[in-house]
Amino acid sequence: MGNYICMRCGEETDEPHFDLVSGTVSCPICLEQDAGILSRLRSSSEHKDLDSSRG
User: Which residues pair with 17 in a beta bridge?
Assistant: First the structure.
């Protein structure tokens, strides 16, 4: 049983991630999902930048 509750999915976790900016507590699973979304957004914006610099 975890000592903390993830504020996103509601699961208990022993390894919480505290986001000091937003004040939320996330479990490693939600944190990993967020990182995947951010990397996809970042890579798509890099492709747009490359396309606009060509033309």
Answer: 26
pTM above 0.85, yes or no: no
Residue 50: half-sphere exposure toward Cβ, Cα within 13 Å = 6
Taking phi over 0 as left and psi of -120 to 50 as alpha, with beta for the rest, 48 belongs to alpha
Output the tens digit of pLDDT for each of the chain's 55 residues.
Answer: 568 999 999 999 999 999 899 899 999 999 999 888 888 888 877 666 666 665 5
The residue among 38, 29, 39, 35 whose CA lies nearest residue 6 is 29
What is the rounded CA–CA span in Å between residue 47 and residue 55?
A: 13
